[in-house]
Amino acid sequence: MPPEALVIGSGFSSLSSACYLAKAGFSVTMLEKNHQPGGRARQLRDQGFTFDIGPTWYWMPDVFENFFADFGHRVSDFYQLSRLDPSYRIYFDQYKYEDIPASKEELYRLFEKYQPGSTSLLKSFLKQAGMTYNLAVKEMAFKPGYSLFEFVTPQTMTNAHLFVQSLRRLVRSKFKHPYLISLLEFPVLFLGAKPGDTPAFYSFMNHADLEMGTWYPDGGMYSVVEGMLKLASDLGVTIHTDIAVGGLEVSDANVRNVITSSGNYAPDVVVSGADYQHTESLLPIEYRNYSEKYWSKRTFAPSALLFFIGLNKKLTTVLHHTLFFDSSFDNHAEAIYDHPSWPEQPLFYINVPSVTDPTVAPIGNECMTILIPIAPGIEDTAEIREKYFLDTIRRFEYLTGEKIIEHIVIKHSYCVNDFTKDYNAYKGNAYGLANTLFQTGYFRPGIRNKKVKNLFYTGQLTVPGGGVPPAIISGKIVAGEIIKKINIDEYAA
Ligand SMILES: Cc1cc2nc3c(=O)[nH]c(=O)nc-3n(C[C@H](O)[C@H](O)[C@H](O)COP(=O)(O)OP(=O)(O)OC[C@H]3O[C@@H](n4cnc5c(N)ncnc54)[C@H](O)[C@@H]3O)c2cc1C
């Protein structure tokens, strides 16, 4: 009999680890508490409108391609991708916006418009960003994070200054115009930390943005989930939804009994892609890697207030991705990280995939998601959501000159309380832990339980970090460590 692996959750990290374990010969069962698999990347459908509830930016296409290649496939076997051009739009003020082009020549022209002579600065910045991408995403991201020495290589030592200097300082040492600074500091927001707290090494996110581009999987990001579900199922993974794991019983330093809302399981190995702190709460206290105090001292990435809106008109002033950077980022960041509270005039992001994809909204309609990053754990009430909804719609109308309020035909909101309820997310975080220097690599919560030999953790709270590509890599790392540890042949004998 093959060894049995039980995977908790069905987000990208769980799906990824399940696929690698099944390929290696494990008998894999996934248990997901929600009705729909996909974790934070679930989908909402209502009256002909289709929304991605979580991720909407498809960056680092090489990570997805490499994942499917590990199973003898190509991305195109599961979904069709197209590169967006322009990649996205940024509003800086009323009617004042710039489109970020896919073409490098056009990008240079954009930089020259705001900072004459900046092409050479941009070229050298992007050259360095390409180097850090190769080092970070192709090499370091795949380390299990057991030891600091995994990350001490001749190349990282040569670039040690990029871990000490912040991205903010690096960008501002070269670029002076506030629009260019916003454009170059924006990508690290995906890492959940302030540019001032993010090492310059993370400029690889600029490489991902400006060199590799923004892509769109037809049908939305949920097509990626469906592709991975299909692959998992083809590999023999059994996927059960509507089953929550409620406890992990330990004896002889191993999880021997997994208690669920629908019976018990006794696997040989357990991988949890559920939020780390929640997984630990399923264990008796003496077997947890980290205390409540540890979690309370971590810097969590933001939570988010989201609105999913159907409009009975087509929009003319936005692209597939539009960022609204018309107010102070520093003030907004302070309300997220320094004094957790509702921000006064937050930056926001709008996703309108129906600009590109006619299948996600009825003809002549538009489906629109509004995302406002907020501090995790802050008060979440219907009144607060409505206030921010009206404020944001007003700001949208003012900045773009386009009326939408009377065209809203459906509306859903999603915030801190939903993240907590749906995903067991600590303080209702959306993106896991921030990738600050001391929450990177070896310093992140570990993938192994130190006292329970057959319990492993994957996902955005452990290595390498938050975001869809890192979650997929995380699943590969953890499966690799389990495959090294468990001798499949012994089970076959
Ligand atoms: C609003 C939002 C926007 C984002 N935008 C982007 C983006 O544009 N691009 C990008 O790359 N990334 C983005 N991200 C981040 C990305 O979505 C996540 O990093 C990634 O999906 C996390 O995957 P995961 O496997 O680590 O965790 P999750 O997707 O959270 O999966 C964990 C799963 O475990 C399940 N679970 C929890 N407890 C239990 C239990 N007791 N029993 C059974 N199951 C349980 C949960 O229901 C969930 O399905 C976004 C995230 C959010 C929330």
UniProtKB/TrEMBL annotation:
<protein>
    <submittedName>
        <fullName>Phytoene desaturase</fullName>
    </submittedName>
</protein>
<dbReference type="InterPro" id="IPR036188">
    <property type="entry name" value="FAD/NAD-bd_sf"/>
</dbReference>
<keyword id="KW-0560">Oxidoreductase</keyword>
<dbReference type="InterPro" id="IPR002937">
    <property type="entry name" value="Amino_oxidase"/>
</dbReference>
<dbReference type="Pfam" id="PF01593">
    <property type="entry name" value="Amino_oxidase"/>
</dbReference>
<keyword id="KW-0125">Carotenoid biosynthesis</keyword>
<dbReference type="InterPro" id="IPR014105">
    <property type="entry name" value="Carotenoid/retinoid_OxRdtase"/>
</dbReference>
<dbReference type="GO" id="GO:0016117">
    <property type="term" value="P:carotenoid biosynthetic process"/>
</dbReference>
<feature type="domain" description="Amine oxidase">
    <location>
        <begin position="15"/>
        <end position="483"/>
    </location>
</feature>
<comment type="pathway">
    <text>Carotenoid biosynthesis.</text>
</comment>
<dbReference type="GO" id="GO:0016491">
    <property type="term" value="F:oxidoreductase activity"/>
</dbReference>
<comment type="similarity">
    <text>Belongs to the carotenoid/retinoid oxidoreductase family.</text>
</comment>
